[in-house]
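W.,

You were right to be curious about this one. When I first looked at the sequence I had no strong expectations either way, so I just let the prediction run and decided to look at it fresh. Below is the sequence, 255 residues in total, followed by the output.
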Amino acid sequence: MTHEQLTLSTCKIARKAGKFMAEERKSFDTSKIETKGLHDLVSYVDKESEKLIIAQLQQILPEAGFIAEEGTNDKRGERFNWVIDPLDGTTNYIQGVPIYAVSIGLLDNDELVLGVVYEVGRDECFYAWKNGGAYLNGEPIHVSDRADIHDTLLATGFPYNDFSKLDDYMEILKWTMKNARGVRRLGSAATDLAYVACGRFDAFWEYDLKPWDVAAGAVIVNEAGGKVTDYNGGTNYLFGREIVASNGLLELPLK
């Protein structure tokens, strides 16, 4: 399969998982919520969604392995590895806040070559593949062209169990609150990145994110003409636990 064919097949899989989540939410059983760590929740929906996604992905690329949040399959591929967050925004989902997404990226050795983010509540599927551009429900998307910080809408994520950089984070937040048009915190990094890619947000930053939170969204932002780095402007955003994504015209004081 080409990257384009793989991406479009992955979109179908993400939509199937999203449909399952939406149906389960109608009769969600709060007694099945588990705690992985401080303020870090998981539900049976996360796990079952991941199993569904992995089973489908195995059919379209049997040789690939998986880097998946819930660890329902720990197989690693020699070349290809899917990077999966079956439900990005679990706390939102549990609380009934309709902002959560399926996030699926594909690594070819160390290079991200495709990404799919399906935002379930709005039925919006964002996707991209290497050198193929970025799309939302079949239509091309592009990052914004706003260069003046005072005209921008920014997004971030609040730390919920790693507070080691909290003081620095608060300084950045104060700066952005004083200078930008607004700052939002949706509770789903995959959605934040997708919104940067289509120009709804002009930049997004967060620390202590995992590979499955950012893999798909990073591909989409890059292919939409944006820029994705770590806080130092380098490329260690997938495993480095810090990311800044922008339209490429803005500089945030993150170093």
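Here's what jumped out at me. The chain has two domains: 3-140, 149-246. And, maybe more interesting for your project: The mean pLDDT is 93.

Coffee later to discuss?

I.
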